[in-house]
Amino acid sequence: MSSLIGVSQKCQYALRALFELALRYPADIVTTVSEIAETQSIPPRFLEQILSKLRTGGYIESRRGNQGGYVMTVSPSSISVGEIIRFVEGTDESVDCLKKPGSSHCPFRGGCVFKNLWERAKSATSDIFDATTFQELLDKQRTIKNELDYTI
């Protein structure tokens, strides 16, 4: 994980790719890799790997042929951002003392004054990510678009 909130660039790409497909749900509109890559500014070589992982997780499916591409297979209201983060990132911890109990990764072995801080930060971000569905992101996108489209 490459940031304080624990969301790697790969995971951000996965979230944006899934969001792009959610924009077309449930119309079952097939979206190509190049469309997703261009719209969401994701390097196509990384996107292929990410889409493959999302497909194995059952979040999307691929369609073959001339009109091939990807579609979302589950409702945006049933998937949280936290679920996708955990699916892509796994359960690896970025702070040593939050790793498995009894782990010897932390040199302070439980005596670190920062442990409670890390636990609270992890809990707060998990709560936010788990409480945010892709449907909420879609609704927010529509609100932003309407505000930008508003003219006097």
Keywords:
6 helices; 51% helix; mainly alpha; 152 residues; 5% strand; globular
Q: Layout of SSEs?
A:
Layout: H1 9-22, H2 33-40, H3 44-56, E1 60-63, E2 69-72, H4 81-89, H5 115-131, H6 134-149
Antiparallel strand pairs: 1-2
Overview of the molecule:
This protein is mainly alpha-helical and 152 residues long. The protein has one domain: Winged helix-like DNA-binding domain superfamily/Winged helix DNA-binding domain (Arc Repressor Mutant, subunit A). Helices cover 51% and strands 5% of the residues. It contains 6 helices and 2 strands; from the N terminus they run αααββααα. A two-stranded antiparallel sheet has the order 1-2. α1 crosses α2, α1 (9-22) packs across α4 (81-89) and α4 (81-89) packs across α5. The model has no long low-confidence stretch (mean pLDDT 86).
- What is the beta-strand fraction? 5-15%
Helical proportion, percent range? 40-55%
Using only C-alpha atoms, the radius of gyration works out to 18 Å
- Overall pLDDT level: 86
| Secondary-structure arrangement, i.e. CATH architecture | Orthogonal Bundle
